[in-house]
Amino acid sequence: MPNAMQRILKLRDGAAVADVVVSILGPEQRDHSWFSEWNIRWPDRERKGSAGGADAIQALLVALNIVGTELYCSAEHNAGRLNWADDWSGYGFPVPNGMRDALKGDDAKYL
């Protein structure tokens, strides 16, 4: 994804660690709406989509929430195998209000 914002998460499988690359493209206007493309590249699959909004900020916020939902609903999260940084508990992505109880650690505290 050219000109994408990226975050690299770590997926543990025993002693092995693999990258999970999260990419979000800055919003682009199409006709009267705005869209932000997102992509999560897991070691064994890829999830991607487009988030729309009335303006660029809304499109970006929706994309961030979708990515947060994808991560927190993943089997890798449920198994406790996914992390972002040694000094942060969670992934640093928001989720919609209806699933805030899924947030863990620093995400629950600060997002």
Whole-number average pLDDT?
95
Number of helices: 3
Taking pLDDT < 50 over at least 5 consecutive residues as the criterion, the unreliable ranges are none
Question: Would you report the number of β strands?
Answer: 6
Gyration radius (Cα, Å) is 14 Å
Oligomeric assembly: single chain
Secondary structure category: alpha+beta
Major sheet characteristics: 6 strands, antiparallel
Share in helix: 10-25%
Proportion of strand residues: 35-45%
Task: Note the main attributes of this structure.
single chain, 111 residues, alpha+beta, 6-stranded antiparallel β-sheet, 6 strands
What would your notes on this structure say?
This protein has 111 residues and is of the alpha+beta class. It has one domain (4-110). It contains three helices and six strands; from the N terminus they run E-E-E-E-E-H-H-E-H. It has helices at 56-72, 75-78, 105-110; strands spanning 4-13, 16-25, 28-30, 33-41, 46-53, 82-83. The model has no long low-confidence stretch (mean pLDDT 95).
Strands, helices and their partners?
Layout: E1 4-13, E2 16-25, E3 28-30, E4 33-41, E5 46-53, H1 56-72, H2 75-78, E6 82-83, H3 105-110
Antiparallel strand pairs: 1-2, 1-6, 2-4, 3-4, 4-5
